[in-house]
Design a protein that fits this description.
The complex is a heterodimer of chains A (111) and B (112). With 111 residues, chain A is mostly beta strands. Chain A has no helices and eleven strands. Chain A has strands spanning 3-7, 10-14, 19-26, 30-38, 45-50, 56-59, 62-66, 70-75, 84-92, 99-101, 105-110. Chain B has 112 residues and is mainly β. In chain B, strand 4 and strand 5 (44-50) form a beta hairpin. In chain B, the strands form two sheets. In chain B, strands 2, 4, 5, 6, 9, 10 and 11 form a seven-stranded mixed beta sheet that branches. A four-stranded antiparallel beta sheet of chain B has the order 1-3-8-7, with no helix packed on it. The A-B interface holds A 31-32, 34, 36, 41-46, 49, 87, 89, 91, 96-99, 101-104 and B 2, 4, 42-43, 45, 48, 55-56, 58, 88, 90, 92, 97-106, 108.
Chain lengths: 111, 112
């Protein structure tokens, strides 16, 4: 069964303290892996698409990487405004293009 | 601003009632998706339309229905409402069936 698991469920960091969020997936064939950011009470905001192992994407303090089994969202020197829930979703080759969503990691950056 | 417009933003109604949520996708996007998100819960996929046709169904209750019109806007109809239907309902759109979804601000439904 296709599955996406995110860890940790929640992460509290001090401002400037770098860390990584994990998204592990089990799918029959990966069509794409997507990272989103969601602020409380708002719709998710698309961040990155990764298609193949070894691929990396960067945006400001965020960098997403992909292996054959997992993806990492690295956050460097985070600021309080980076606080949000980060969602990972996978599009499997046999899923009729539907996304399989992880439960998310709630990131809190303390000033 | 994602370019996806949802109305109403907030809706309070009573059990047993029926409501309609509306979504206008980004200009040029043919796919519309509906998701439900209950308090502190993950995104639950409900249904997808592509260029007016239903493409995929998720965990959508029989009391719920949706459609996409020729101008590509979509409506989600929720009937015989129950307390447990209280949630944020998101609409998203994408070019074709890509995984890069653009979400609206959501419609917050409260059933009393």
């Amino acid at each position: 069964e296709d599955q996406v698991t995110q860890s940790p469920e929640a992460l509290r960091l001090q401002e400037g303290e770098s860390s990584s969020l994990n998204c592990s997936y089990t799918v029959s064939g990966l069509r794409g892996l997507f990272w989103y950011r969601q602020d409380p009470g708002k719709g998710p905001e698309f961040l990155f698409t990764l298609y193949s192992a070894g691929e990396e994407k960067e945006k400001e303090r965020l960098k997403a990487t992909l292996t054959k089994k997992e993806s990492f969202l690295h956050i460097t020197a985070p600021k309080p405004e980076d606080s949000a829930t980060y969602l990972c979703a996978v599009q499997a080759a046999d899923s009729n293009y539907q996304l399989i969503w992880g439960a998310g990691t709630k990131l809190i950056i303390k000033p | 601003d994602s370019g996806v417009t949802q109305t109403p933003k907030h809706l309070i109604t009573a059990t047993g009632q029926r409501v309609t949520l509306r979504c206008s996708p980004r200009s040029g996007d043919l796919s519309v998706y509906w998701y439900q998100q209950s308090l502190d819960q993950g995104l639950q996929f409900l249904i997808q339309y592509y260029n007016g046709e239903e493409r995929a169904k998720g965990n959508i209750l029989e009391r719920f229905s949706a459609q996409q019109f020729p101008d590509l806007h979509s409506e989600l109809n929720l009937s015989s409402l129950e307390l447990g239907d209280s949630a944020l309902y998101f609409c998203a759109s994408s070019v074709r069936q890509a995984g890069e979804l653009f979400f609206g601000e959501g419609s917050r439904l409260t059933v009393l």
